Structures are given as C-alpha cells and as structure tokens.
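Figure 3 (text version): structure tokens given as input.
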C-alpha cells in the first residue's frame, strides 16, 4: 500500500508513534510518504520505501499567522495525486485532520477519493480539544475522517464524552520496539550517576505542565530520606527552568540531574530502577511503556489510559493525581531489594504485549478496512 503519514515531527509522543509506524510499515514493504514541516526526529537514514515531503509556508507581510493548514492541505493534494497514494494517515486531530478534510475535498474535484485515517493521541482531545474555539472544528474533522483510531480505550471514551461523534473509533494502543528498547548492559554509566549504589529514578517528557514535574521533585525530596537515590530528568520544555529552581530551593542539586533532550533514551532507561509519570492527563503514556520494555517499573498517576498500561501492584503502582505521599510510599516499596526484581520482570512481561510486531498489523487491518469502505462508497 502507498501511505501518506502526517504528524508533528519534533519531540513528542504522537510524532514518535507516527514515525516508528511509518518505519515499520516500510520494513514490511509498504511505500511510506511522510508529509511534515521538518524532518521527523527519528527519520535520519535511507530506506528505499520511505519518502519525505516538506511543507513549506511562504511568508507575506499580511500573514501575521502563516496559513499552515492551507500549506499542508496543498502538499497533501500534491503528494496524493503525483505519488498515487492509497491512503492518508494523520496523527493528532488539530490541524492535521482538518487539513486532510480540505485535501480530500480538493482531490474529489480531480476524481480522487482518498481515504483519510485520523489517529487521536491525547492532548488533541483532552486539552486543545476542550478549548471551545477548536471544538466545532475537531468534531467536524473527526466525523469527516473515513477511519478514526485512538491510542487507548480511555481516550476513545473521552472523545465520545467531549464531542458529538458519529464515527466509530478503533482503539489501537501505542507500541514499543523491543529490539531497541531493551536492557543494555551499561553498568559503568550507572556507577557514574550513582557511585554509592543509590537507586536511580528517571522521568522523560516534553516538560509541559500536564506532566506535573513538580510532583516528581517533591516526591523525590521525600523518598530520598527513605531510600538513597538519584533522579534523572530527561527532556526539555516550558517547565524546565522553574523545575530547576524548585530542585535548588529544595536543596536537591546534588541528586537531581536535568539531562536535556536525549535521543538514545534506552541507554538511560537501561540503568534506571524506577520510572515516574505523575501526569495530570495521559492518554497512554508511551514513555512509560518504553521504560517498562527496559525492565523499569512505573509509579504513575491513575489518569487517562495509564491504568491500561501500568498494572497496579504488578508493573508498578497508580496513585491519584497529586498524591505525592502515596507515590513516595509505593516507590519505597518497589525499591526494596526483595521486591525490585519481581516488578522489573513484570514490567517487561507486560511491555511485550505492546511490541511493535503485535500492533502494526492492527493498523494494516484498519487501513484495509477503510480503503475497502471508501471504495464501496464510490460504487
Ligand atoms: O504531551 C505529550 O506527551 C506529547 C503528546 C503528543 O501528542 O505528542 O503525547 C500524547 O500522545 C502519545 C502518543 O500517542 C501518548 O503516549 C501520550 O500519553 C499523549 N500525551 C498526553 O495525553 C498528555
């Protein structure tokens, strides 16, 4: 099949899922065309089945806000028409599903009925989607997509609860490549960070408010009194500076390290003992799955799709959003030497259920169904 993939190309779960999906599809012999405003972060190699089309937005003094949606739709039209695509798969509803609708209408004038699949990733529904300015546009764009998927059952429910949706939504969870995300023996690295045998806690994210990184730092300040430990915070974003201030205020500078953005995240996860994800909202929690694949148990909030990933008392523990004391208690329990190996083994066993080899066929089946549905509409 010839598939066009549209996503946000920078750091962020939806872009990672879209890029890894495209790479996996290309490996299976599909022709994949990425349509994005810059080269996707994990797409830095040559593959005969992968093509990249950059969306260029021309500037003009009138454009206080450059019309990205129009530029994207125009590029979609061009790629679908000249590369003879069978399907467009857009990740994140805003504005990708809207541009896809526009492209679809334009292509109809050229006698092409391109099937459009939209994958909902989370904040497009739970945060941006709840902004009344966007609600009518998102509702319309989801309803006009030929196929819709969401990354968790909870996000599917949230979408139906938030918008007036007439479409079906298939749940296709996030996935992990267990060939890449596995325990790498990097013990020398662990010794540098934890020279006295401390336990290592890790968090990775785009440092937005929704991640509640202040809870991680407050929790760590208490946990450190019980279990000798270090905290690595990987990633960057709007909250980083204030979080650096908070960790200094709490006198944690010796034990908390801000690493910044890091591509080879599996190397850090390999030496971690515990992953922390106390998010306010989290539709799935891809970063936690990547940690679990590296045999790292998870302390998380019980919000959104996290209970579908983190099994309470088995792969880690779930706490109410903001319940820092409960997180401290649970973390201290997991980190006991007699408990840690079981939690690690359970985390890996559960992550295996989300291996890329299990999930990509679900997307392929969805595509086939949607292509067939659109073909039949034509008859
Ligand atoms: O805020 C983020 O975590 C980034 C965001 C994105 O769209 O790039 O992630 C969302 O999509 C990921 C991939 O499907 C999910 O694993 C994350 O849980 C989800 N984030 C939130 O719901 C906050």
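Below: residues designed for each position.
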């Amino acid at each position: 099949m010839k598939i066009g993939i549209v996503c946000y190309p920078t750091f962020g779960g939806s872009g990672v899922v879209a890029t890894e999906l495209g790479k996996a599809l290309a490996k299976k012999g599909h022709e994949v065309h990425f349509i994005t405003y810059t080269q996707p972060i994990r797409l830095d190699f040559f593959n005969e089945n992968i093509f990249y089309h950059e969306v260029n937005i021309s500037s003009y003094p009138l454009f206080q806000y450059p019309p990205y949606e129009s530029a994207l739709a125009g590029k979609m039209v061009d790629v679908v028409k000249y590369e003879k695509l069978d399907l467009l798969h857009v990740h994140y509803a805003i504005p990708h599903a809207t541009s896809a609708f526009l492209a679809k209408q334009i292509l109809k004038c050229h006698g092409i009925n391109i099937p459009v699949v939209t994958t909902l990733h989370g904040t497009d529904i739970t945060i941006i989607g709840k902004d009344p300015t966007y609600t009518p546009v998102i509702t319309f764009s989801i309803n006009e997509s030929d196929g819709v998927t969401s990354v968790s059952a909870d996000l599917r429910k949230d979408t139906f609860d938030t918008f007036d949706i007439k479409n079906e939504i298939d749940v296709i969870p996030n996935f992990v490549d267990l060939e890449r995300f596995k325990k790498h023996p990097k013990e020398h690295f662990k010794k540098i960070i934890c020279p006295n045998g401390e336990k290592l806690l890790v968090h990775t994210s785009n440092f937005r408010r929704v991640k509640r990184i202040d809870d991680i730092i407050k929790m760590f300040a208490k946990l450190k009194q019980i279990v000798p430990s270090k905290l690595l915070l990987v990633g960057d974003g709007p909250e980083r500076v204030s979080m650096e201030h908070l960790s200094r205020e709490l006198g944690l500078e010796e034990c908390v390290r801000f690493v910044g953005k890091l591509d080879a995240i599996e190397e850090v996860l390999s030496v971690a003992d515990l992953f922390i994800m106390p998010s306010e909202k989290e539709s799935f929690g891809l970063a936690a799955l990547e940690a679990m694949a590296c045999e790292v148990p998870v302390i998380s909030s019980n919000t959104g799709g996290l209970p579908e990933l983190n099994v309470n008392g088995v792969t880690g523990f779930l706490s109410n959003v903001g319940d820092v004391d409960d997180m401290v208690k649970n973390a201290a329990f997991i980190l006991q030497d007699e408990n840690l190996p079981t939690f690690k083994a359970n985390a890996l066993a559960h992550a295996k259920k989300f291996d890329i080899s299990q999930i990509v066929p679900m997307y392929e089946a969805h595509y086939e169904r949607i292509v067939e549905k659109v073909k039949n509409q034509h008859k």
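The chain has 15 helices and 13 strands.
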